[in-house]
Amino acid sequence: MTINGGTKRIRAIGLMSGTSLDGVDAAWIETDGERISGFGPAATLLYEEGLRADLRRILDLAPTLASDDPFLRDVEERLTRDHALAVAMMGQTADIIGFHGQTILHSPTQRRTWQIGDAALLSRLTRLPVVYDFRSDDVKAGGEGAPLVPVFHAALAREMEKPLLIVNIGGVANATWLGPDGEVLACDTGPGNGPLDDLAQVHLGQPYDKDGALAGSGQVDLSRLDALLAHPFFARPAPKSLDRLSFSGLIAEATEGLAAPDAAATLAAFICTAIAQAPWPTPPKQVLVTGGGRHNSTLMKGLAERFSVSVRPVEDVGWNGDALEAQCFAFLAVRSLRGLPLSLPTTTGVAAPQKGGRLYGTIL
Ligand SMILES: Nc1ncnc2c1ncn2[C@@H]1O[C@H](COP(=O)(O)OP(=O)(O)OP(=O)(O)O)[C@@H](O)[C@H]1O
Ligand SMILES: CC(=O)N[C@H]1[C@@H]2OC[C@@H](O2)[C@@H](O)[C@@H]1O[C@H](C)C(=O)O
């Protein structure tokens, strides 16, 4: 493998710990950073309850937390050790790891985006070089720092009919619109499963609303839905991005006093309407859905009602919706090594195509 001049077929493991805080996804691909020449195993390592709760606490503390805070350092080490376990679960060697880490704060207007995770420790534990810190160069250059998955979506869908809309419903929801002339437009669309998970935790004592049963049994409160959609974020043009907690105050207010099923139904309608009303140049010919939200039938039904074209899970075109983001960070690690851009003016609002990522260790 050589990186500059004659680069070909690098074996990369991507690791993504998403805003749902449920665990780390790992996936192996072979790529030159432009095309994907092979897909390998994928795995998810679920965090134990204590780590999940500590990560959730850190999201609230992050705005005032010092980077050397002992609690933060302890959580970061436990998180990193779980990432090393996820690499071991792959059972397949690689040339490089793409390590996203866990976003604990995202505020591009303050030029801040913060992913925790110890690249040096991960590299020591796995004995592999690690690319990390994918978002900060974009934010420093005036971009949103997110979403970063669009260039990967574009590579995956290279041969597919356009315009195509790819929607990810994770803790936060984001979408990529791929146009017939190679256009790649993207933004975070609004909340994803995050607020539904919070509600399920309180009312069901479960980490999420399984299959959307709670939301499916309630009535949408239309005036509260309008109040949610009146947030200025929705009038902003793409590109734009969100923090996991961007709407938490507004959502608490808008769901106050509602019965749990009605609150869940209203939140599901909020998530789906925000996705469907995101501004794209022309309507897509089809919508593909990835991320954990594709398992929520109330969300899938809500999307199908709001688009006039087919809305299908990405498995229908042979992709793995549980592995896509991890595959993305494997792909972006290789792009980083090759000095290729990770983001574009049309995906993060950065002024020019932007490189990113830092390397810990040496590529042989
Ligand atoms: N069977 C199911 N029914 C309903 N919801 C589900 C189901 N399975 C997963 N989910 C939802 O998917 C979420 C996890 O989604 P995912 O792994 O895509 O999030 P993430 O990668 O952490 O988030 P992000 O993309 O924002 O970083 C869970 O928290 C839950 O809300
Ligand atoms: C700051 C941050 O971590 N954002 C995540 C989050 O989860 C979904 C959405 O919000 C997206 O913007 C991003 O993740 C994906 C992988 C991305 O960058 O494309």
UniProtKB/TrEMBL annotation:
<keyword id="KW-0418">Kinase</keyword>
<dbReference type="GO" id="GO:0016301">
    <property type="term" value="F:kinase activity"/>
</dbReference>
<dbReference type="GO" id="GO:0097175">
    <property type="term" value="P:1,6-anhydro-N-acetyl-beta-muramic acid catabolic process"/>
</dbReference>
<dbReference type="GO" id="GO:0016773">
    <property type="term" value="F:phosphotransferase activity, alcohol group as acceptor"/>
</dbReference>
<comment type="pathway">
    <text>Cell wall biogenesis; peptidoglycan recycling.</text>
</comment>
<dbReference type="Pfam" id="PF03702">
    <property type="entry name" value="AnmK"/>
</dbReference>
<feature type="binding site">
    <location>
        <begin position="18"/>
        <end position="25"/>
    </location>
    <ligand>
        <name>ATP</name>
    </ligand>
</feature>
<protein>
    <recommendedName>
        <fullName>Anhydro-N-acetylmuramic acid kinase</fullName>
        <ecNumber>2.7.1.170</ecNumber>
    </recommendedName>
</protein>
<comment type="pathway">
    <text>Amino-sugar metabolism; 1,6-anhydro-N-acetylmuramate degradation.</text>
</comment>
<keyword id="KW-0067">ATP-binding</keyword>
<dbReference type="GO" id="GO:0009254">
    <property type="term" value="P:peptidoglycan turnover"/>
</dbReference>
<dbReference type="InterPro" id="IPR043129">
    <property type="entry name" value="ATPase_NBD"/>
</dbReference>
<dbReference type="GO" id="GO:0005524">
    <property type="term" value="F:ATP binding"/>
</dbReference>
<comment type="similarity">
    <text>Belongs to the anhydro-N-acetylmuramic acid kinase family.</text>
</comment>
<dbReference type="InterPro" id="IPR005338">
    <property type="entry name" value="Anhydro_N_Ac-Mur_kinase"/>
</dbReference>
<keyword id="KW-0808">Transferase</keyword>
<keyword id="KW-0119">Carbohydrate metabolism</keyword>
<keyword id="KW-0547">Nucleotide-binding</keyword>
<dbReference type="GO" id="GO:0006040">
    <property type="term" value="P:amino sugar metabolic process"/>
</dbReference>
<comment type="function">
    <text>Catalyzes the specific phosphorylation of 1,6-anhydro-N-acetylmuramic acid (anhMurNAc) with the simultaneous cleavage of the 1,6-anhydro ring, generating MurNAc-6-P. Is required for the utilization of anhMurNAc either imported from the medium or derived from its own cell wall murein, and thus plays a role in cell wall recycling.</text>
</comment>
